[in-house]
Write a structure and sequence with these properties.
By secondary structure, the protein is α+β, with helices and mostly antiparallel strands. The protein has three domains: 98 residues, Helix Hairpins; 146 residues, Immunoglobulin-like, CATH 2.60.40.420; 121 residues, Cytochrome c-like domain (Cytochrome Bc1 Complex, Chain D, domain 2, Orthogonal Bundle), CATH 1.10.760.10. The protein has 13 helices and ten strands. Strand 2 and strand 3 form a beta hairpin. The longest helix is centred in the first third of the chain and has 34 residues. The protein is elongated. It starts with 5 loop residues before the first helix and ends with a helix. Bound molecules: heme C and copper (II) ion. Copper (II) ion (CU) binds next to loops.
Length: 425
Amino acid sequence: MPNLSPRVNLVLRSIVAALLGLGTFVARAADTMENAYWNMPKGVTEISHRVWWLHMYAFWICVVIGVLVFGVMFYSLFAHRRSKHPVPATFHESTTVEIAWTIAPFIILIAMAVPAAGTLIKMYDTRNADLTIKITGYQWKWQYEYVDQGVSFFSTLESKANAARQLHSGIDPKTVPNYLHDADNYLILPVGKKVRFLLTSDDVIHGWWVPDLAVKKDAIPGYINEMWAKIDEPGTYRGQCTVLCGRDHGFMPIVVKAVSEPEYEQWLAQQKGANAAPAPAAAATPAATEVAGAEPAPIPAASAPAAAPAADAAKPAAAAAPAKLGHDELVKNGEKIYASTCAACHQATGQGMKPAFPALVGSAVVAGPVDGHITQILKGKNAMPPFGPQLSDADVAAVATYERNSWGNHSGDVQPAQVAALRGK
Ligand code: HEC
Ligand SMILES: [Cu+2]
């Protein structure tokens, strides 16, 4: 800097250095904030990136507006305080200012609406999907159906978390990894494929939300909502039900696992292999096919018979539906089904929660004839939902046997054939 006294030179240099420092600080702070865990996640899809960008874009516009407005306000409060300016100015009505403060917000709104509308249009474009998954919400679990692949299963709260959440369980939730954010079966999806989700519910309104995928919609009985995601990176993405759907609303987590395409194909082949076994068995049971007619299915695609045997694919015992099962096997399978399907209302101890949910300890239904017990499970009663559409014959037999031989009950075993005979009646 020529011709400047050393002192001026120093002052100028200091100012430049201070501005640079401040700039770096603001940039760093902004970066930290944008990536902070409490900010909205950037996610792993193009849409989620766009949504995140919109969120930050609107946020920074708000910051600038906030700084300007509060800046003018605080400056005015200070500079024109009464002790300095006892007599206020009397001017009013400035056309220029009025036009400016009409046009400026208008421009800001347009600047925000244009990219937002573009993103919304993209979000709603579910055409040309490579793969369709039908998601059905139940109190309190999710069902995933790979529509064109004939694969279907339920996803419920992982068992350790389910045990820990019970009243007086004595288990510290902090010792359970991903407490309430882990499921027994994950929704497996291939990366780089456009996946269309069809979302509905079997009972009340649920909401399917995975922040990293930027998908969130209500699952409404009788309606089908659509959304889609194309996941860029393999990984495990967690979400949860977002509509207050009853007392166990907090216990229906969502876990999506995105894997490479070959891994996905391999997994799918495994599922199909596992599904192949129970399918003919179910068809061979005449009663099972009648369910379609007997069940008042509000949405045609929700037809239960296809879903039920497929869902049991994970449980090998279910494959042998018509066969006679041993006592120990029934009780063992029944205990699992009870924990994931019944314990929410009747409690792990079978004590229920009076007065709404009756105890199964010393229950007349459990101690009574097998047929009444089975029918109650298949068809439900009052506040108890029907489990016929969700559980296979082997499942119902197992859970009934478990109830009849637990907590001091001793009322004998139930075989899948007995359940099959009562379905559709
Ligand atoms: C959403 C809560 C809920 C779930 C889940 C549930 N039940 Fe029930 N259950 C009830 C209610 C409510 C009743 C009482 C129905 C009535 O008599 O009005 C009941 C009654 C029963 C009874 C008869 C008890 C008695 O003495 O009257 C049996 C047996 C039974 N449930 C078995 C099961 C089995 C097996 C499952 C799991 C497959 C299950 N329940 C899941 C709510 C539930
Ligand atoms: Cu829900």
